[in-house]
Design brief:
The structure is a homodimer of 239-residue chains. Chain A is an alpha/beta fold and 239 residues long. Chain A is 39% helix and 22% strand. Chain A has 8 helices and 12 strands. A 5-stranded parallel β-sheet of chain A has the order 2-1-3-4-5, sandwiched between helices. The longest helix of chain A is centred in the middle third of the chain and has 16 residues, at 108-123. Chain A starts with 5 loop residues before the first strand and ends in a 10-residue tail after the last strand. The model of chain A has no long low-confidence stretch (mean pLDDT 89). Chain A binds chain B through residues 133-134, 136, 141, 143, 145-147, 155-157, 159-160, and chain B through 84, 105-107, 109-110, 174-176, 222-225, 228, 238-239. The structure holds a DNA duplex (30 and 30 nucleotides).
Chain lengths: 239, 239
DNA sequence: ATCGTCTTTACAAACTTTTTATGAACCCTT
DNA sequence: AAGGGTTCATAAAAAGTTTGTAAAGACGAT
């Protein structure tokens, strides 16, 4: 793909759509817009964008349903736009496989940063993910065979669950991971309500990997939603 | 050359050197290490290794210069280790006659595969690691034919199962070996649940090879997971 | 029958995970 | 801007497994 990255914007507010289109186009992206989920799906099949930005509240097929249908046919990164107070819906969207969310109102710069992050992640070498024996991400180095972990060169010791949690975070760097997702991945589907487990383990993990556990740099809290892992906080800065 | 293939490791990072040495020795290679290019050249003239593994960034004579000087006097296969993002230097090294390169970080298995490939290409003794008759790894010396073992020069007597267990450990130095893996390897697939066997045999083995069985240096426990064998514990464990 | 080895059993010590409790942080409403 | 209700961070206790070790029983070879 030597072309500009293609971004599909799905939103029923013409004003917001216009802002997004001009903002994204001026940064070199190729942008197309659709006014509802149905039109969005058609545009996707037609145009094969590299990233989809969708609002949640929409006529016809809404943002949630759009996520579901897109995930059924594609791994395209999805960024969800949502109004404040739609926490529950946001979580649903993320559980359905959305990559990130931005809460309205937002600055165009914030959205652009998230777009860059998602595109980078999508293009990033998911090389031999299944067979990779070494994970290397930002300040983190993990040898899955020897189960040795270093952060910025310093070796650390993790318990098995802590190890699994960190590996999961690294493998989904940048994505917003909901509590449910994390619990299902690490404890199994019967434990998706045990948020306390997560709190304790995230806390312990932070104590071991964060320079200052009180102001985390790597494992970021998304209140009401879940956590987000940033392996290299200098690059992903938003402001 | 009836001996094991000889490998010269040139690297100024003691930790990496140690990993390479134990990893290669445990597979039946004869290994010598040098801390910089100058020492590497001397060792080469002295010892005539069958293969040279060298880092790029080093004090005194660096990896590039080492390649150049080696090529002036020998066709010995050279494998270059390089950090991420040293693409340009990598190309230079290959132009100078290096045979292969491996990007850090790498798994020991990847390096071993390249070593085998380079030796094969060089028509070096096609000695199969699997048929090596002597293992030399850290403080351990094992003769697979006579089934004799010395630890730090002291001969010890092991029962057959203990012997097989130790050999398995040595051949997989540094890796964490799960209970299942060990049980399957030594007792067969029907015994993968018999963790008690393992406990007893590891305990007995420790009594015979550890200076102090109560605080093991060689056979390390990975709680909930399995065991890890470290043939050459120089750096004291981090807690 | 004896010896050496492997298997089985038992229990305390060590370690991880789960549970509980408390104060701080956060979001929404007024 | 302030208050109520949740959620989050943290420490520490409780519960549950696993591990280390000794020792007894089983098996086979000499």
């Amino acid at each position: 793909m030597t072309d500009q990255p293609r971004i599909l914007v799905v939103d029923d507010e013409p004003q917001l759509t216009r802002v997004l289109r001009t903002g994204l186009k001026s940064r070199g992206y190729d942008v197309r817009a659709a006014a509802d989920g149905l039109a969005g799906l058609e545009a996707f099949n037609d145009w094969h964008p590299d990233l989809v930005i969708t609002d949640l509240a929409m006529p016809n097929v809404d943002g949630l349903e759009l996520c579901r249908r897109l995930r059924a046919i594609s791994q395209v990164p999805i960024i969800v736009l949502s109004a404040k107070g739609e926490e529950k819906t946001k979580v649903e969207a993320l559980d359905l496989g959305a990559d990130d969310f931005v809460t309205k109102p937002f600055g165009i710069d914030e959205l652009l940063a998230r777009v860059r992050a998602s595109l980078r992640r999508a293009n990033a070498p998911p090389i031999n993910e299944a067979t990779a024996t070494v994970l290397d991400s930002g300040d983190f180095h993990v040898d899955l065979e020897s189960r040795e972990i270093t952060v910025s060169g310093k070796a650390i010791h993790l318990t098995p669950k802590e190890f699994d949690l960190l590996v999961y975070f690294i493998r989904h760097s940048g994505k917003v991971l909901t509590h449910r997702t994390l619990l299902a991945a690490l404890w199994g589907g019967n434990y998706v309500e045990q948020n306390e487990y997560l709190r304790v383990f995230v806390g312990n993990l932070r104590k071991k990997i964060e320079p200052d556990a009180a102001t985390p740099r790597y494992i970021l809290t998304e209140p009401w939603i879940g956590y987000r892992f940033d392996p290299d906080p200098q690059i992903t800065q938003i402001k």
